[in-house]
Specification:
Among the domains are: 58 residues; 239 residues, Endonuclease Chain A (Endonuclease, Chain A, 2-Layer Sandwich). The chain contains 18 helices and 17 strands.
Length: 476
């Protein structure tokens, strides 16, 4: 009996120390109140397990590692925003758009760049051939980053093309996420290495206890050819992205860009490559002089858990706050934290037309449940929600007042805004914003409007399930 009581006493002391350690770390390191309360509660109410989950999933250890590497681009600078927004956008730009541009200047340290060309692709049937053609035409360098790079029909086409490029003397660098492209096994990286390609896995360690940042993922999708041709958007490398065997392609939007903004795509890749491998990419093969190629004004903004500001979240909030006519969003997952959610509600309440397009059926059931609870107040708030039918729509688009638009890898959820490394391509004015608006129009037409009656008719147990899953928002 004495031994049992002694053991229980030590277990209680150990639990108290572990929970107290979590509490102190949360109070000192985390700024979000709701998330802080959730983590502290979990650590105290779930002995040992709660503390273990926090240190596995709740800690941002990346910032210290990034600062040790001392990331800079060639020349020791980041292409700082030295040209005023009004000089790029012109005097006809509204004060709201100028304010948004200045916000981007401050958050990213990168200036808006005119003289770009934009081509949009609706799915892999259109995007993959263009990307493979660009890889085949590479002369000096290829920088390729993908969250998911599967060893399937699509992945093998890309792997073979990259291996062929490497064999003819092109310097090929491939970066895949350490979880998204397989944790225990990543056949595609083995295939690439056998072909002589330099491939790295982002934030990956074989032993779980050596990987305390398992929750911090690189969700970007970037391809840069010779430092001159760029591709980015929401599309991973997977057979589900093109039509085959009678299955329709997952809907997703990817973009090809030419012009000075390609340097900002390359910068985002180079920072992640240096972070992972310790190697800085230098020389004209990666950083050529970029001439104007069109008439689109753009900027590429990176964001991740190594930053305290949450650049992309603040850009999106700023865009909504400046809206006077309409805000349109297409996203596969809509689970924003309260601050962004309230920004949308305020926009609708002041008369801005707010339209959000989400899939009627999520590819992750738990996201679908939580999202339905999140959307339940929309009809009352005056927000128009549209449910897109199959095939699943993985597109990530946002447009404000027909004057500003964004596309990239960012979902409207806490994970993308706070935990993932993401990339957003800003577009100012026509013709780019009009093209993105046309894509959004097509998606709205093919969707079903979410009505109050549809929400009210759900069984009580379904409502309870959805509301319960919504409580997991700080962890999703």
């Amino acid at each position: 009996m004495f031994v049992d009581q002694f053991s229980l006493s030590w277990l209680a002391v150990a639990h108290t120390i572990a929970a107290l350690t979590v509490t102190i770390h949360v109070l000192m390191r985390r700024s979000d109140v709701r998330s802080s309360i959730a983590w502290i509660g979990l650590s105290w109410l779930s002995p040992f397990l709660g503390s273990a989950i926090y240190f596995a999933f709740g800690v941002n250890r990346v910032a210290r590692r990034a600062s040790r590497i001392g990331l800079t681009t060639p020349g020791g600078e980041k292409g700082l925003a030295t040209q005023k927004a009004i000089e790029v956008l012109g005097e006809d730009a509204s004060e709201g758009i100028l304010s948004l541009a200045r916000t981007g200047d401050s958050l990213s340290g990168l200036q808006l760049v005119p003289g770009n060309d934009l081509t949009l692709y609706k799915n892999g049937d259109a995007a993959y051939p263009a990307m493979l053609e660009a890889i085949a035409g590479a002369e000096n360098s290829i920088a390729f980053l993908s969250y998911i790079f599967r060893d399937d029909e699509a992945g093998r086409q890309f792997a073979d093309a990259l291996i062929v490029a490497q064999s003819r003397g092109v310097n090929v660098k491939v970066l895949v996420d350490g979880i998204g492209s397989g944790y225990l096994f990543s056949p595609i990286t083995d295939r690439l290495r056998r072909g002589g390609v330099d491939v790295q896995r982002f934030l990956h360690e074989w032993l779980p206890w050596s990987m305390p940042f398992i929750n911090l993922r690189n969700h970007k999708k970037l391809l840069v050819i010779d430092g001159k041709v760029g591709f980015t958007g929401g599309m991973n490398i997977s057979a589900e992205n093109f039509s085959h065997k009678g299955q329709l392609a997952v809907q997703d939007v990817h973009a090809k860009v030419l012009g000075p903004v390609v340097g900002q795509l390359m910068m985002s890749f180079a920072e992640d490559w240096a972070f992972t491998s310790g190697e800085r990419l230098l020389g004209e093969a990666w950083w050529p002089v970029l001439e104007p190629a069109g008439d689109v004004i753009m900027r590429g903004i990176s964001s991740g858990p190594d930053e305290s500001l949450g650049s992309i979240e603040m850009i999106l909030a700023g865009a909504i706050e400046q809206a006077t006519q309409r805000v349109r969003i297409v996203t596969p997952y809509f689970l924003p934290e309260d601050r962004l959610f309230e920004t949308l509600r305020r926009a609708a309440l002041r008369g801005v037309a707010v339209d959000i397009v989400v899939p009627a059926e999520s590819n992750h059931f738990y996201f679908g449940w939580a999202m339905m609870a999140h959307l339940s107040s929309f009809p009352l708030d005056g927000i128009n929600c549209h449910l897109s039918a199959q095939p699943f729509d993985h597109s990530k688009l946002v447009s404000v007042d027909g004057a500003w638009a964004g596309l990239g890898s960012v979902n409207w959820d806490a994970r993308s805004m706070r935990l993932n490394f993401e990339f957003l391509l800003e577009c100012y004015g026509d013709p780019a914003v009009s093209e993105i608006d046309r894509l959004i129009d097509e998606k709205i037409v093919r969707s079903t409007r979410l009505m109050r009656s549809m929400l009210a008719d759900r069984p009580v147990l379904v409502k309870l399930r959805d509301a319960s899953m919504r409580l997991m928002l700080p962890y999703l």
